[in-house]
Amino acid sequence: MFDAVQLAIGRCMEARGVDYQPGSYEPGSYPAFYGIVSRERAAASGYRPARAGGDQEPESAPAEELNRASVEALIGTGTSTVDIRADDGELLGTYDPDSCLSSGTAEVRPEWVELVQLEAQLRSVINPSIEASNDDPAVLDAWSEWSECMAARGHTFETPWAPYYSVWPGDEPGEEEIATAIADAECKEVTQLIPLWSSVLADIQGEMLAELMPGVLDRWSELRAADVERVQT
Asked: Which of 75, 141, 155, 167 sits at 20 to 30 Å (Cα–Cα) from 118?
């Protein structure tokens, strides 16, 4: 989907006589609130943000300056912007219908503005659902199993967030941080904490959506499916 939009934007920019380097997308894994989940990531970076290229600092590529024509072609001049608003009037964003960013997106995803509005509604259940999942008996039992697994390896933490959000010394991860992070990821795997936690969270979010905003998820799924089918044909 991302690549298809980038190609459409590129065609628009080319038609306007402007060079454009398509962006790239790296899909993530589990959200950060689960803590660290990859043994490989733990061994390489501990609880620090992973760096591109492993232990080597990525070389800084010289910034390519875009001229005014390129910027205006891509995002518009700012003189004819349209607001995207939620049902309650909250401003979700703005766009220029004449820009290549907007027209390229619309070529691949004609209902993208409605999707932005729907996704804003869907995001509203994230924090309440996380809080509810933290009180779920099955999740609390899984946390206890994880904590016991960590203790057996010499690391005492009550919740999976505790080591992830701890302040670890030094500019680079030390032996203790690496050992803790590896144990953390391995104990999550042994106890199957993440699949259980994410399943409980999904069930809670589904119940909240059905109660608070019936039809929103169905409509979002319908539009997304249409986008996928459009890209694949």
From this structure: 75
Q: What is the mean pLDDT of residues 193-209?
A: 93
Sign of the CA dihedral 73, 75, 77, 80? positive
Distance CA 87, CA 5 (A): 27
End-to-end CA distance of the chain: 12
The pLDDT tens digits of the residues spanning 37-60 come to: 889 999 999 998 765 444 444 443
Residue with tokens 């999976």: 160
Give me the percent of the chain exceeding a pLDDT of 70: 89
CA gap 146, 186 in Å, rounded: 9
List all residues 6 or more positions away from 217 whose beta carbon is below 8 Å from its beta carbon: 122, 206, 209
Q: Report which of residues 22 and 226 the model is more confident about.
A: 226
Each domain of the chain, given as residue ranges in start order, spans 2-46+64-232
The owner of tokens 């080319």 is 14
> At 161, is the pLDDT very low, low, confident or very high (cuts 50, 70, 90)?
confident
Question: Given a cut of 60, is residue 155 above it in pLDDT?
Answer: yes
Question: Encoding tokens for residue 58?
Answer: 């990525």
The number of residues in the chain equals: 233
CA distance 20 to 40: 35
In three-state secondary structure terms, 93 is: strand
Which amino acid type is present at position 225? A
Helix (H, G, I), strand (E, B) or coil at 78: coil
